Amino acid sequence: MSDELSGIYARESSYLDCYVQIGIASDQVVSVSFPRSSEANAENEHELLDRIEEYLEGTGSDFSDVTIALTVPTDQRAVLEAVRKVSYGEQASVERLTSTISDLDPESDEDLDAVRTALDENPVPIFVPDHRVRDGPSAAPPQVEQRLRSVEGL
């Protein structure tokens, strides 16, 4: 990605039955959303939109090489970074995910709730694949989450 590609990009996905919209700033993905229509100033050509389209067609991309900017509190950042380590086609439970994060206790209801909050507030679903956490919320709408899970055979 390059600086001249900063902006909002969106493309309609017939598989997801909505648009995939990404926000790029300083060569980093800052947001992903799934609106019914794209923003008026959104462009539809971007290499990441091409990759998402290929992913939805079953290519197995994991997007681990995509640079993201997580503008979230530090405790949420640790959770989202742990989610990025869950491989394509695999899933984790909230409890298992919590156990991989230092300073969090998978037996603590408070810590489990903190993990669920981070998943729910994930600014970049797909790139931080919260749909791979089987018993946690996803920042993607339910229909999108289910279709992402289906693509990966989850």
**Given the structure, what is the number of helices?**
5
Globally, the shape reads globular
The percentage of residues in β strands lies in 5-15%
Share of residues in helices: 25-40%
Can you walk through the features of this model?
This protein is an alpha+beta fold and about 150 residues long. The protein has a domain at about 75-140: Winged helix-like DNA-binding domain superfamily/Winged helix DNA-binding domain (Arc Repressor Mutant, subunit A), CATH 1.10.10. The protein is about 30% helix and about 15% strand. The chain has 5 helices and 3 strands; from the N terminus they run βββααααα. It has helices spanning about 45-55, 75-85, 95-100, 110-120, 140-150, and strands at about 5-15, 20-25, 30-35. Strands 1-2-3 form a 3-stranded antiparallel β-sheet, covered by helices on one side. Helix 2 (about 75-85) packs across helix 4 (about 110-120). The chain is globular, with a radius of gyration of 15 Å. The mean pLDDT is about 90.
Observed structural traits:
154 residues; alpha+beta; Arc Repressor Mutant, subunit A; three-stranded antiparallel β-sheet; 32% helix; globular
